[in-house]
Write a structure and sequence with these properties.
The chain is α/β, with parallel strands linked by helices. It has a single domain, classed as Undecaprenyl pyrophosphate synthetase (3-Layer(aba) Sandwich), CATH 3.40.1180.10. It is built from eight helices and six strands. It has a six-stranded parallel beta sheet with strand order 3-4-2-1-5-6, with helices on both faces. The radius of gyration is 19 Å and the shape is globular. The two termini are 32 Å apart. The relative contact order is 0.18. The structure holds farnesyl diphosphate (FPP). Farnesyl diphosphate (FPP) binds next to helix 1, helix 2, strand 2 and helix 3.
Length: 251
């Protein structure tokens, strides 16, 4: 396994878990079997991230666009999600992990929402990793809802247009309170963002691997994190400025 510098891990890791369907089809299995195997990878990544001390893990579990999939697959995914959340809450308590959800919760079936509500309530006092599930989530939808909400506040006299800046805008997003992701992993060889965290990924380091999500192992996770550790994050500054900043903070 790749050696990791535990002091240089991403604070916030985001993942686009792609390739469940292809994994299943390549094995002549039903797509849902791919999702079930994908849920096992979720368990491994949650456990590893929490063990390594990553503070925030955000998983793209169901996009706004995924509602257009065949109804049988949507139903099966919702059932799988509910089962995962129910089964894993005890483990989340043991590992001090707090559940969080972003996305349009009102689109989700009532029973899924109730299960989520209970899991969020039970884990609310946990102080370890924050596990955010993006459910019925789309970046454009999130941004347009934030704009609509701001417009309502301006019209109601609660917000002055001059007060709108980057910091204030962020408080209107679903992710308000979470730091931006430092690192994004996408599996299955696709090199796109697919409407995930459009605002928040502005300076995120991106990592793409050909491995399908059900085949993503601890080794692959460590390989990705080692790659992150080899990168220089400049945030628009020069390399010199970054190393001087490093010298000052080490002084
Ligand atoms: C993308 O694979 C994956 C999804 C749309 C759903 C992700 C869900 C899981 C990993 C399992 C359940 C989640 C949790 C949090 C327990 P795809 O179906 O688009 O694959 P394809 O591109 O090969 O068809």
């Amino acid at each position: 396994m790749e050696p990791l510098d535990l002091t240089k891990l991403p604070v916030h890791l985001a993942v686009i878990m792609d390739g469940n369907g292809r994994w299943a089809q390549q094995r002549m299995l039903r797509r849902i079997v791919g999702h079930q195997r994908g849920a096992e990878t979720v368990k491994m990544v949650v456990e590893q991230a929490s063990l390594l001390g990553i503070k925030y893990l955000t998983l793209f579990a169901f996009s706004s666009e995924n509602w257009s999939r065949p109804p049988m697959e949507v139903r099966a995914l919702m059932t799988l999600l509910k089962k995962y959340i129910r089964q894993e809450t005890v483990r989340m308590m043991r590992k001090n992990i707090r559940y969080n959800v972003i996305g349009n919760r009102s689109d989700l079936p009532d029973d899924v929402n109730e299960t989520l509500e209970e899991a969020i309530r039970k884990t609310a006092g946990n102080t370890g990793m924050v596990l955010t599930l993006a459910l019925s989530y789309g970046g454009r939808q999130e941004l347009s809802m934030a704009a609509a909400c701001m417009a309502r506040d301006v019209v109601a006299g609660r917000l002055a247009p001059e007060a709108i800046n980057v910091g204030l805008f962020e408080t209107y997003l679903d992710t308000g309170g979470l730091p931006d992701p430092d690192f994004l992993i996408r599996t299955s060889g696709e090199m796109r963002i697919s409407n995930f965290l459009l605002w928040q990924l502005a300076y995120t380091e991106l990592y793409f691997t050909d491995i399908n999500w059900p085949d993503f192992t601890i080794n692959e996770l460590h390989k990705a994190l080692a790659d992150y550790q080899s990168r220089e994050r400049r945030f628009g500054m020069t390399s010199d400025q970054i190393s001087r900043r490093g010298d000052l903070s080490n002084a």
